[in-house]
Amino acid sequence: MRRLVYLVAVTLDGFIAGPEGGDPSGSDAFPITPDLVELLASTYPETLPGPARAAMGIEGPGRHFDTVVEGRASYQLGLDAGLDDAYPHLRHLVVSRSLAGRDDLPVEVVADDPLARVRELKAEDGLDVWLVGGGTLAHALLPEVDRLVLKVNPTVLGSGISLFAGPETSARFTPVDQVDLAGGVRVVTLDRVR
Asked: What's 144's domain CATH number?
């Protein structure tokens, strides 16, 4: 069975973006260092947006994922950059009520019950499903999150969008791998304890 893998950058205090949201990539809290790019390109090349893959000469199917799921705010980051599909090499689903009924987009819009849709995806054949974010969607999908791959930045924000943004809940994960990069990011992989 396919897994739902939440692969995301996070601060030491558990935030995936500042209070205003937006794309934190490249900010002081979430620097994009050469060693991080190298790790992503070699290990998770399918998580790089289409233009970055093209610039780096990366082609072919994904190693870990063939499907990506993201929330409306995360999708907006791509739209703001002029990309209506930042991941054209993956099956791309966007969870959004505001985009319901839009058939002019090159992505599948999931307007209702993302948890049921993810369960359907996991029952299909294929590679794992990548959950990009954001925190509210991650909280809604927490019952189906099987693995976390956290790019832990050695920074503290104090407030912002939480890794899992929602009411109190509980889930247990156990570490299975860790890579410490020279640029300061620690990539920690944790599997769900069921």
From this structure: 3.40.430.10
Structural domain including 81 reads 6-192
Using CA atoms, how far apart are residues 26 and 53, in angstroms rounded to an integer? 17
Specify if 1 maps to a domain. no
Rounded distance between C-alpha atoms, residue 45 and residue 27, angstroms: 22
What is the rounded CA–CA span in Å between residue 129 and residue 5? 6
Measured between alpha carbons, how far is 185 from 109 in angstroms, rounded to an integer? 33
Distance CA 182, CA 65 (A): 26
| Residue that has been written with the tokens 């990506």 in this structure | 68
**Dist CA 88 CA 107 (whole Å):** 9
Q: In this predicted model, what pLDDT tens digit does every residue of 20-48 receive, in sequence order?
A: 887 777 688 899 999 999 999 999 999 99
- From 125, 165, 144, select the one nearest 14 (Cα to Cα): 165
- The amino acid that residue 141 corresponds to is L
